[in-house]
Fold this protein.
Amino acid sequence: MVIRRIREHVTAHNWFAVVIDVAIVVVGVFLGTQANNWNQDRIDRADAAEYRQQIIGNIKVNEEDIAARIVYYGQVRRHALAALRALQQRDVKLGEPFLIDAYQASQAWLRGFERTAYDEMVATGVARNVGDSATRAALSGYYVGGRGFDVLALSSTAYRDRLRRIMDLDVQERIRARCNDVMRDLPSGGLSATMPETCAPGLDPAFAARAAKKLQSAPELEEDLTRSIGDIDQKMSMFNRTLRAARAMRAKLEG
C-alpha cells in the first residue's frame, strides 16, 4: 500500500508527498524495532529474575552441602590421626580398630560445586539483567571460586589408592557392609553423608591382626597418610572460606 503510494507520488513528481511517505515507513520500522526490543528486554528481565531465584536455590544447596562436608571430613581426619598414631607405634600389635581407622581415613566426598542455574543463565545471554555491575561482578567471582573448589574437592591423595590396593578385600567389604556412610536428606533436596558413630565389622581377631600387620609393613603408607591429613586440612580451610562466600553471595542476591 505504502510502496504503491510512493510510486504514484514519484510518477506525479510530488516530492513532498514522497518524503512524507518515506518518513512514515522509517518511523514505522523504527517503532516496530523498538517495540520488539522493549518486549525482548522485558522477557530477558523476567528470565534473569527467574534465574536469580534459581541461583539463590543453588547457593543454598552449596551452603548445606559444604556444611555437611565440614562435619564429614572432620570425622575422616579423626580416623586419619588415629591410624597415623597407630602406624607410628612400630612394636604394637594392631587389630580391628586400626583397620577401621585406616579405611575410614581413605573416605572422600567427591561431588562438585552446584552451578547449574548460573551456567544456564550465562549461556542464554541474560546475565546482564541479573543485577547491577557490582552484583554481576560478585556473582562471577563467586563462581570462579567454585571452579577452584572443584579442583580441590574432587581430588584424592595417593593414600586412598594405596590403602585400597593393599588392604585385604575381605576387610574392606566387611567395613563397607557394617560401617557404611549414613545418608540423610538435606532441606534443599540434596544428600549428606556422615560416618556411623560406632563400627563393629566383627573380624576374626587373628585375621584382623594379620591384615593390620600387612598394612604396618606397607612401604610409604605412613607418609601417604601424613600427606592425606594435610590435604584434608586444605579442604577444610577451603570449605570454610567457600561457606562464608556462599552466605555473603546469597545475602547480596536476596537483599
The chain has one domain: 2-254. The beta strands are 182-185, 191-194.
